[in-house]
Amino acid sequence: MNTKLSNRNFDIRIFAIFFGWIATGGTGLAATDITPPTATAPVQTIAMGTVVTGTVSTTVPIKLKWSAVDASGIQSYELWRSTNGGSYVRVALSTPTATSQTYRLIADNSYRFFVRAYDNAGNASVAKYGPTFTPHVIDDRDCCYYYGNGSRPWTRAMLSWAYNGTITTQGFYGGAFHAFTGRDVAYVAAVGRGWARAVVIIDDLFSRTVDLNSFPDAGAQIVFSKHWGTLAAHTIEVLHPLSIDWGYINVDAIVVIQ
C-alpha cells in the first residue's frame, strides 16, 4: 500500500468529520430542515394609478401584499387567484421572491387570492387565503351627496379623459360625502395644472390633504386610498379647504372594495 496516499486519505476523512462535527453542533450528522415556512395571507389595497374605462369593462389597480418567514430562508412564492368563485389560476409574479404585486382587476367581479411559500429546503407552507373582495367604481354623478355655498355650487363638467367623461367641481367651501360598507376606499380625481388642494375626511376625522395640482394633467386618477382589515361601515368626505386654496377641486369617482 502507498503509505503517503493512505495517510492523506485518513487526514481528509478526519478533516471532514471534524468540521462536520462543528457545523452540526457536535452530532457529526447534517441536520435536515423539515419545518415549512410560516406565511401570511395576501392583503389587498387600492393602488395609486388610473381607473381605466374600456369598451367592455372598467379596471382598477389593486395591490396584493404577503410575506413568509423560515429559518432556511424563502426560495419562492406562488400566488393564485379565483374570479367569481371559479377555479384558482396561478398568477405571474415579478420575481420568485416578490412579496407584493399590482394587478388591474375588472370592477364588479369578486376575487380571492391565496399564497404558498417555499423555503430553501423545498418545504411548502400551507396555503394562506385572503378574503373574497369585489371592487366597485361609483361615478361622480352617483357617488356623492354634494353640499356647499349656494352662490358657488358644485357643477358638472365634461372631460374626455375623466372616468365616464365627467367630473363634478367646486370652487368655494363645500364637500362631497359618500357613505359605504367596505374594507377599502379610494378618491378618484382629475389632476394637473390649475386644480387646488382637496382635504379628505375619513369617518369624520381628517386623513390627508391631496394637492391635485402636483400631478401631470390626467383624469381618472386615484389620488388617495384607505384600507381596513375588516368589512365595516365608513364614510369618506372630500372638502374644499377655503382657508388654504381658492382654486377648484373635483370628484371624478369613488372606488370601494367590499
Describe the structure.
The structure is a single chain. This protein is mostly beta strands. The chain folds into 3 domains: 31 residues; 96 residues, Immunoglobulin-like, CATH 2.60.40.10; 121 residues, Sandwich (Jelly Rolls). Helices cover 8% and strands 50% of the residues. The chain has 1 helix and 21 strands. The strands form 5 sheets. Strands 3, 12, 13, 16, 17, 18, 19 and 21 form an 8-stranded antiparallel β-sheet that branches. A hairpin with a 5-residue loop joins strand 7 and strand 8. The N terminus is likely disordered.
Describe the SSE topology.
Layout: H1 3-23, E1 38-39, E2 43-46, E3 49-50, E4 52-53, E5 58-65, E6 68-69, E7 74-83, E8 89-91, E9 100-106, E10 111-119, E11 128-129, E12 135-139, E13 145-148, E14 155-158, E15 166-170, E16 174-191, E17 197-202, E18 205-211, E19 218-239, E20 249-251, E21 253-257
Antiparallel strand pairs: 1-6, 2-5, 3-19, 4-5, 5-9, 7-8, 7-10, 10-11, 12-21, 13-16, 14-15, 15-20, 16-19, 16-21, 17-18, 17-19
Number of helical regions: 1
Strand elements, count: 21
CATH superfamily of the largest domain: Galactose-binding domain-like
Class from helix and strand fractions: mainly beta
CATH fold annotation of the largest domain:
Jelly Rolls
- SSE pattern, N- to C-terminal: HEEEEEEEEEEEEEEEEEEEEE
The largest sheet is: 8 strands, antiparallel
Strand content: over 45%
Name the features.
single chain; 258 residues; mainly beta; Immunoglobulin-like; Jelly Rolls; 3 domains; 8-stranded antiparallel sheet; 4-stranded antiparallel sheet; 21 strands; elongated; disordered N terminus
